[in-house]
Here is the input.
Amino acid sequence: MVNITCLGNAGHPEGKVIIWKQTSIADSRVELGKSSYTDTKTEYCITDAYVTVSYSISKFDDGAFFGCTAQNKFTPEDSVPSRKIGPLNIFCTYTCINALSYNSYMY
Here is the structure.
């Protein structure tokens, strides 16, 4: 079990952050968790949002990407800013112990 945390600047007006997974064989992302919309603003009227999910990594996550997306009501669906980690390389024996390597980059 791993905890995945996403803290992001969700912009102004208020926004949310979403944690997602995309497998190596799927074209779409699967939402694992999201923050509620928040109106807690910093001194510059920027909204920070936060979410943590617990996830059990398995051998089926080999090659998967995990990511965090910040979004508000004005963010176009096709150009949502994200940070993603992966692809994961999962090494298993009888039971899956952990994910041993990944690459992280922003797009």
The longest strand covers residues 2-11.
